[in-house]
Amino acid sequence: MSSLFLNRQTSDERKALIETLHQTQSGHCFICEKVLDLQLHKDNLDVDHVIPLKTGGKDDPSNFALTHDSCNRSKQATNLEVARLLQRFAALKEALEPDNRSPNLGDILTQAGGGQAELSFKLVGDQIQFTLSAVGDQAIYTVPVYLDELSGFRYFFVKLPIQYLRHDDRINPRAIGSNISKLVEEFYLKRPQLHVPLAWMTSEGGKSAVHVFDGQHKAAAQIMLGAKAMPVRVFVDPNPDTLITTNTNAGTTLKQVAFDKSVQRHLGSTLYRDRIDRFRTETNRPSDDLAFSERDLVSYFKGQSREMKRYILDAVRDGVTSSADNKLRDFIDYGGRGKERPLSYSSIDKTFYSFFIYQEVLDTPLHFGLEDGQNPRELETSQLIRLMNVIAEEIYIGKFDSDIGTDKIESQLQKGTNFPLPHLRAFRMSKEEVLYNWLKFVEQIAYTYFVNTGMPTQKERLFQYPFPEQLWTNIRNFVRNLAGLPLWANKDLSETVFGGKANNSFWETVFATGKSPQGVQVMAKGLNLVEMMK
């Protein structure tokens, strides 16, 4: 809504208003909080309402702010105070990108000066007494301790200063997603939080950190808005394995929270490590013993055999995804809703992990072949990472531009927009149905190599056999030659072959014959794998 006040101002009055706002804001943009120079930025300034008129803001100088015009046009909220908070979050997210991660509650707490203190307490019967000395409050507080009849865990409700709260990234490894913006706006409008965060502490030693493992988005939004204390439900001495399992089930079988698949895999990997520790303890084995197999674990936890198998495979997937050596992970969107990266985690899960990770449990001891590099799971992981690196180097690194992203590329091509050809190629080769088919050729190339050399090979365990360097050369040549095919750069195909969602059989036909099932000529001829490996 336009401003009558600003529209009625003379040029001198507007200049004076800008200078006053500039001085009030200490020479900084209201949104990004970076320096705003009245001379250098004179043609790139905006004066806008802090609180929009449509939500009750006043149309007078008390409700105006000075911003860079680019910040005002790209702001994530109509309310400038909320936009400023979201810009701070965006800056934090950018600062963490070199670590290949996104912010979590722990980062928000650190930014706000929280997460450092431990709670001093005494458990007396069905009560807990504590002080908040770290924030200068020496009073002794007493609250009742309850017993959860289902789990048997003790718990209490308390409002704690943020100095006493920490994020538990083991039980809850989720990063804070884009929906934080909606929560910040919701709480800014003074609408209450309906669910309190969940946390846990230990009763040993009379002093404990309070670890938040659920409700981090709502807690983070309130802290971003300036909350200095938070109501929490704190479990005392809970079984961490139970909490991890409960949190995992909430995001998988129960669908109570929207866990990304990558988070589910990470939690499964954590549960696998916990089961290994439990197995050692309960069978009186040394803490570093690995002389047992995946099959032994499944048999021991026989009431959870299906879950154990999932945990084992999740550990392999997570080992590949989280490896710092994996160059492809910079091009994977883990949330599944972004428009900056070409590959979704779901596509990675349905292709790389489904094709190249052995889906059954192993009978060999966990330590088998570790010393000479022949351990089947280690080989599987390292060779899958190497394959991803080959693909990243040939298709994505220095070629795919995240600033351009993936949003509506084919429809923009149809409207005459031009894209750099390496970017267009990477985008098209990343489509799940396309990726599915050409990765099947990689599998065929590897399996055929072993057959031709006379080595007995189980196809489903392909990546558990060491690949000779010649095979890696063949795979790289195939990927490079595939990326060089003209179809990826053919803009005319945006209305036919690439114009809509195709299935796997569609691209199987294209790669086999050179034509689509509808007869559209896509390539000069079908692929010849022998020629593609040269």
Walk me through what this model shows.
This protein has 534 residues and is an alpha+beta fold. It has 3 domains: 4-74, His-Me finger endonuclease fold (3-Layer(aba) Sandwich), CATH 3.40.1800.10; 105-238, Conserved hypothetical protein from pyrococcus furiosus pfu- 392566-001, ParB domain, CATH 3.90.1530.10; 324-532, no CATH class. Helices cover 41% and strands 12% of the residues. The protein is built from 19 helices and 14 strands. The protein has helices at residues 4-7, 11-24, 69-73, 80-96, 105-111, 180-188, 216-224, 240-251, 261-282, 294-300, 305-321, 345-356, 376-396, 409-414, 421-429, 432-452, 469-483, 504-513, 529-532, and strands at 45-49, 64-68, 119-124, 127-132, 137-144, 146-147, 154-161, 165-167, 198-201, 207-208, 210-214, 229-236, 332-333, 343-344. The longest helix has 22 residues, at 261-282. It is flat. The protein starts with a helix and ends with a helix.
Quick structural summary:
The protein is an alpha+beta fold.
- Share in β-strands: 5-15%
Integer average pLDDT: 89
Roughly how many Å apart are the termini? Answer: 63 Å
Q: Please, how many domains?
A: 3
Total beta strand runs: 14
**What are the low-pLDDT stretches, counting only 5+ consecutive residues below 50?**
254-259
Class of secondary structure makeup: alpha+beta
